[in-house]
Amino acid sequence: MEFSLYLTESVFGEIASFMLGALILFFMIYTTPRKSRGYQHLLWGMILSVMGSLLLTLLAIPWSEMPTLGSSWFQAISMCCFLYLLIYHQILICIFSYMNFVLSRDRLWSPVKKWGSVIFSLLYLLPAGGMLLRTVVRGSEVTNQAAIVVGTVHYCAFFGFLFSIGCIVVAIHGWKIIPRVVRVSFIAFMPIILVLLLFQYFVDTDLFLSVTYVLPFTIFYMMFHSNPYDEVMGTMNYDSMQTVLREMLENNDRYVAVEVRFPQLQKPTMVNDTMEIASLMTSGCQAAERLGRKVRLFREDRTTFMLISKVESRKEGKEIAKGVFELVDSFRFSGNTLFYYKILALYNDPVIKDFLSFQMFRQFLRSNMNDYTTSQFRVASQKDYDDFALNYKVRQALTDIRDRADSEDPRVLCYAQPIYNVERQGFFTAESLMRLNLDGEIIPPNVVIPLAEEIHCVHALSCIMLSKVCREIERMGDDYEYEAITMNISATELSAPSVCSDFYEILAQHHVPVGKVRMEITESAVFEDYDTVNDNIRQLIRSGINLYLDDFGTGYSNIERLATYRFHTIKFDKSLLYKAMESEKLDEMLSAMVSMLKNDDHEILVEGVETEEQSRYSIDRGFNEIQGFKYAKPAPIEELVNYFSRKDTKSV
């Protein structure tokens, strides 16, 4: 049989493969691709592919026609062909190892992995070694370069075809555990590879064998590493999730998004067998793909997965969410390790306008799902969306208020509640109370303050409130008989070194004496910086500002604070009042505390008094001042003049 000589014009496929492989290899080395456990096989395979395509291109050059080369050159060509056979063998082994990574959970793959590579290597290398030995023994009798090169190419194409058939058989067996995207990729390029190998085996005039291995490595890299897609779990990364959601939100698509978290994985010491849980998560992800044709899976981080699917209705979305719950719950007891999960399902809603609000809504719903020792499944209700809409609206407004720092910001309303003095039988102090006015809707403090603390807006609100309190004090002048107006400051706010200087500056701007403003210290948490708080409190006391200890009897307001700082007034929390009225033991304790504090020259105030019975009880127990709806309700601070007596009258 005569072999036509390869010419450089017939190796376009090899040259193109070399250039593509070199380009991809450059990106693999000098960029930051996702490096899974199978990535090392991909990298090594691409290096060998570039070497192989270059070597085969050089072998196609008709060296034998050059007059300066003797017959001994054919032995060198034979050695290079054998080297190419070894490179091709290693390329197939790299593909085999990558498949081993993808199919690591297939029971059939274990014996194949153990014996398959050994048997294939023997079948491949023994004939190749025989061909090399024949060339060395016959020496100068071998003078047809084309025959050697074509024989090598045919040999590789034959074994490459058999190898590909074997891969198809094993893949079909493990079809159910292969992620959908990997299956689609496999179906797309495997027939092309088989056709190219078969065509290469029967064609002598064109050389394109390198295409059959450079192409798979390129596809693996582009799909699973440059655009991080986990080829084992079948999940995409956070950036991909962000892109998909933004597109859905822009198109107003109907969708369901189901978040699955495994809190134990945040603390690896809580998990006895991390690998077992990882294997169960892999099984769960791949099973989740079968919940719907449009289902897409994403892995945000170590602990959190997200399933997103377009739906025709919320009913369909609820079915998918229920399916995820049943699926995850079934895997929970599959292994030796019991793990806990947090499943959160949400749907498209006009409140969720962009990716940022989507993420904020998730965080909003997570607030009551932080227990590591229980499993939870929560589906967002319409009330959740309504509550979040208010939360989001307030958060945006507070951020703007903080950034503007406008002391006259009309959105911050200054209300006040007069405080009744039992001994003097009138109103001589009042507590200023902050409200937020957003498009005509009045937002109460219990909604505003937690959000303000979260986004570090409390001090900005306090400065605005103090400015408005000072303006009202200026307006009343010396025409009314009153001692002071109080305002609330948090212990967290007092952790800032500049808080006192900011307050003094506002008082000076309005020419308000420090004695006309009192401050109630509320403690929603333990002091963040004890030394700074201590210094600020002492500085306020030295300046002449009287301090109230708020919510005494609950939380962090305790006797330790009384021993550390000199408070003008101790304000008893209403919950202690209500419980003392129902418990004889608590009643005795409350009476003893009131007596003790009064003996230490403290003013004693009780809040939350709404009924005549509560009022009589408070007076009988010796409280100096009483605050509550029974005496006065909160109203705009301008209405305080209706409660404070004019200096020239004796009535309110």
What key attributes describe this structure?
single chain, 652 residues, alpha/beta, Alpha-Beta Plaits, eight-stranded mixed β-barrel, five-stranded mixed sheet, 20 helices, 19 strands, 14% strand, elongated, disordered N terminus
Shape: elongated
- DSSP helix fraction: 40-55%
Q: Biggest β-sheet, characterized?
A: 8 strands, mixed, barrel
The Rg value, from CA coordinates, equals: 39 Å
Number of strands: 19
* Mean residue pLDDT: 83
Query: Strand share of the residues?
Result: 5-15%
**Which spans of ≥5 residues are poorly predicted at pLDDT below 50?**
1-9
The structural class is: alpha/beta
How large is the count of helical segments? Answer: 20
Measured distance between first and last alpha carbons: 123 Å
* Strand line-up across the major sheet: 8-9-12-13-14-15-16-17
